[in-house]
Amino acid sequence: MSTLKSILVALIAMTSITSAIAQEQNAALETIHARKSVRTYTNEPVSQEQVETLLRAAMAAPSGMNLQPWRFVVITDEATKEKLAGGFNKMIAKAPVAIVVCGKTTRAMGGENRNWTADCAAATENLLLAAEAIGLGAVWTACYPYEDRMNPAIEALGLPEDVKPYCIVPVGHPGGKEKPKDKWKPENIHYNKW
Ligand SMILES: Cc1cc2nc3c(=O)[nH]c(=O)nc-3n(C[C@H](O)[C@H](O)[C@H](O)COP(=O)(O)O)c2cc1C
Q: What is the distance in A from the centroid of ligand 1 to the CA of 194?
């Protein structure tokens, strides 16, 4: 190996070690890397204060033109949770709380808001990270764009015509030992050109 190549390899290795150390020392990065989908919950309730912490984090997300099209329906009612729980998200019925992240698809001045799904996704990720940060467990379960998943939520929650259920996030105290997955794949990165 040429000297230059050896230096480059050493530099890349050092950068990688430095970012791994930063990950361990920074609270935000630590939470990001500790987050995992949690699908089993204990019977311990989730407090109103905790729910508000999650919703404050969700609403801190970025959104196109800062339109903040997200709307949230917090479900604690057992019968409603049962109505929302299907094969793909049956854990909703077992979670103390389920938060339905909805998106307003129209703008106040009229017309479509084409960013609503991206905005709701950003809010959902913030919510999941906040749950991890305060010791709760949660999982993103899809609604939009699947009609068969959206319709039960539209009906059960009585959503207006221009508000769509984007996803449902059951939240509780973790009942299992789910671990975060290592998804770091340098081969998925391209520099300057594909
Ligand atoms: C758009 C989206 C839809 C998802 N839908 C479901 C779902 O319907 N049911 C479910 O159990 N998990 C669902 N998940 C969670 C993924 O299965 C999970 O994020 C993925 O397996 C990676 O695992 P991790 O979250 O532990 O890193 C969804 C995640 C995303 C981002």
A: 28
